[in-house]
Write a structure and sequence with these properties.
Helices cover about 30% and strands about 25% of the residues. By secondary structure, it is of the alpha+beta class. The chain has one domain: Sandwich (Jelly Rolls). A hairpin with a 3-residue loop joins strand 2 and strand 3. The model has no long low-confidence stretch (mean pLDDT about 90).
């Protein structure tokens, strides 16, 4: 199935739930705006997408005190359906509908990819990089599409939002098969993924939407900024130092010292 066909299916599902999604987003907009929708696409298609995920050794491993997961953005290395689903979310009709639901104009999609998390993998609480790779546009929305079948609550690997900071319990959004989550990104969008407690692999298709203006007038430039989970005092100090060092480098080198490898480089034909 091609991206324009998939986009029409996504559009149909989002349109049916447009009012409910808008209400969900508006209720959370003062903290970390989000919405989610289940049963986004036909199950057979989602299973095809899941089965097309590459093996872990074909992806880039990111393992540090910040995170532990596999990622890839170079979609032309894999089954074509993965590129098609990513670019379906970047179809202008989808972007325009998301813009209407969230009352955010002039959205520009870019920088999709996939991630995979196995047992003991995690993503510590963090703020995403505030800008695109060239530091020209503000990142305003993450779109996370979960495609692993039969994922249970006890498996872990669920999205956590921390609208009230790390001193308060997070909002947990389950990693459910065929669920799309949209999350606003700004200076207060602290989020994480709790540890995977299963031998199965948590597979996610990601997309990012950008804008020439930030979601909040108070937003400022920042690199991806990690914190430790509550109670991990030493790790938290190390992560804050890590952020300070990387922010200091970006004050001198606007685009960083080296190019971000997690970005799709499509060769012209």
């Amino acid at each position: 199935m091609k991206r324009d066909e998939i986009a029409l299916l996504i559009l149909e599902s989002l349109t049916k739930e447009k009012l409910a999604l808008a209400e969900m987003y508006q209720k959370s907009i003062d903290s970390i705006g989000y919405f989610y929708i289940d049963d986004l696409l036909p199950e057979a298609l989602v299973s095809e997408i899941h089965n097309a995920f590459p093996k872990p050794d074909e992806m880039m491993l990111k393992k540090s005190i910040r995170e532990f997961k596999y990622v890839s953005a170079q979609m032309d290395k894999y089954d074509a359906i993965l590129e098609e689903i990513i670019f379906a979310f970047q179809d202008q009709k989808i972007v325009d509908l998301i813009s209407q639901i969230c009352h955010c104009k002039a959205l520009e999609p870019d920088a999709g990819g996939i991630s995979m998390m196995g047992r003991d993998h995690f993503l510590n609480p963090h703020l995403d990089n505030s800008h695109d790779k060239d530091r020209n546009r503000w990142r305003v929305f993450n779109l996370l599409y979960y495609v692993t079948p039969n994922w249970k609550l006890e498996n872990g690997g669920h999205l956590e939002l921390w609208p009230n900071g790390l001193d308060k319990p997070p909002v947990l959004i389950e990693n459910k098969f065929n669920r799309l989550v949209l999350m606003a990104t700004h200076n207060k969008s602290l989020h994480s993924v709790n540890k995977v407690e299963s031998d199965a692999e948590r597979c996610c298709v990601s997309n990012y939407y950008f804008s020439n203006s930030p979601l909040m007038n108070s937003d400022t430039f920042h690199v991806t900024s990690f914190r430790a989970r509550p109670g991990e005092v030493i790790s938290d100090k190390l992560l804050q130092l890590d952020t300070f060092v990387r922010m200091s480098i970006r004050k001198i080198f606007k685009k960083g010292i080296k190019e971000n490898p997690h970005y799709y480089k499509k060769e012209s034909k």
